[in-house]
């Protein structure tokens, strides 16, 4: 199995908050415009280099990317819509899983996805197949005030067998990082990892016409085709209004409920 199957972070390549300066004031200066254009060029270049490494090295591709500093997916804040759901009390409590968590913890003021939703009512597990990603995540989060409410583990999502199941799985840019022929296996594994009546939240991206990958293009139908046979039904699917600017209109949020009465095929 190719090691890049575990990484959730690939599609962040196409314009990120880290790579794209956040110019929110009215009237950009010429300097800022040039800086933005340079960021786009750098991001595109890094994406191409990253894809070459990942697709040519099935054993150590992701670790090589970390070692060479080719991490255009590394965001500068938690996923906005996930943070919103957490802050409004709209996330399930209990145990949560973030597959392909990476080391997105460099902004300790807000934290990233694992830290952002970890609390006394929710224990969060972040897994990633890259040794470098997990090591960095652990180091950067070691002094977090809520450290007792999360953990990071090196594991392959498809072969991992945790001692306890989860109430919530959050999948963002992981589904589209795996090869399309692995999507049914992804759905079955999600089913196996969730408790009866557990919830899966997916951020579907990139919803667009594109060739190759990773990231591979996705659609709502792509999710339905593998999740319905695995015993899931969508409770809501909607446009992600909190998506970062470069992904507006190309990203949807899906909330899926596992049926306690239907077994996975």
Structural summary, described in words:
- Strands 3-2-1-4-5-7-6 form a 7-stranded mixed sheet, sandwiched between helices.
- The longest helix is centred in the N-terminal third of the chain and has 27 residues, at 30-56.
- The model is unreliable at 1-44, 71-75 and 103-111 (pLDDT under 50).
- It has helices at residues 30-56, 61-67, 80-87, 113-117, 131-141, 183-193, 220-227; strands spanning 94-99, 122-128, 150-154, 166-172, 194-204, 232-239, 252-258.
- The chain has 7 helices and 7 strands; from the N terminus they run αααβαβαββαβαββ.
- With 265 residues, it is α/β, with parallel strands linked by helices.
- The radius of gyration is 18 Å and the shape is globular.
Secondary-structure map:
Blueprint: H1 30-56, H2 61-67, H3 80-87, E1 94-99, H4 113-117, E2 122-128, H5 131-141, E3 150-154, E4 166-172, H6 183-193, E5 194-204, H7 220-227, E6 232-239, E7 252-258
Parallel strand pairs: 1-2, 1-4, 2-3, 4-5
Antiparallel strand pairs: 5-7, 6-7
Count of DSSP E strands?
Answer: 7
Strand order of the largest sheet: 3-2-1-4-5-7-6
Order of helical and strand elements: HHHEHEHEEHEHEE
**Spans of at least 5 consecutive residues with low confidence:** 1-44, 71-75, 103-111
User: Span from first to last CA?
Assistant: 22 Å
Helix amount, in percent?
25-40%
Estimated structural class = alpha/beta
Average pLDDT taken over every residue: 76
Strand fraction equals 15-25%
Radius of gyration equals 18 Å
Largest sheet entry: 7 strands, mixed
Shape: globular
Q: Helical segment tally?
A: 7
């Amino acid at each position: 199995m190719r090691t890049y199957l575990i990484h959730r972070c690939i599609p962040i390549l196409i314009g990120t908050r880290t790579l794209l300066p956040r110019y929110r004031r009215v009237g950009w200066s010429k300097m800022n415009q040039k800086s933005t254009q340079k960021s786009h060029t750098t991001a595109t270049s890094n994406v191409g280099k990253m894809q070459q490494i990942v697709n040519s090295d099935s054993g150590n591709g992701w670790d090589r990317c970390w070692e060479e500093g080719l991490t255009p997916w590394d965001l500068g804040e938690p996923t906005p819509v996930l943070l919103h759901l957490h802050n409004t009390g709209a996330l399930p409590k209990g145990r949560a899983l973030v597959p392909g968590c990476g080391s997105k913890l460099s902004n300790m003021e807000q934290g990233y996805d694992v830290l952002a939703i970890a609390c006394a009512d929710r224990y969060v597990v972040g897994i990633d197949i890259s040794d470098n990603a997990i090591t960095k995540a652990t180091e950067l989060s070691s002094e977090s005030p809520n450290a007792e409410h999360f953990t990071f583990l090196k594991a392959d999502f498809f072969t991992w067998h945790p001692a306890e199941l989860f109430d919530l799985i959050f999948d963002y840019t992981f589904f589209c990082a795996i090869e399309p022929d692995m999507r049914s296996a992804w759905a079955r594994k999600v089913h196996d990892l969730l408790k009866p009546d557990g919830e899966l939240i997916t951020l579907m991206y990139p919803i667009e016409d594109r060739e190759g990958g990773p990231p591979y293009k996705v659609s709502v139908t792509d999710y339905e085709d593998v999740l319905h046979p695995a015993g899931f039904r969508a409770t809501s699917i909607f446009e992600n209004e909190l998506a970062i600017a470069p992904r507006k209109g190309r990203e949807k949020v899906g909330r899926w409920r596992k049926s306690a009465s239907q077994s996975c095929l």
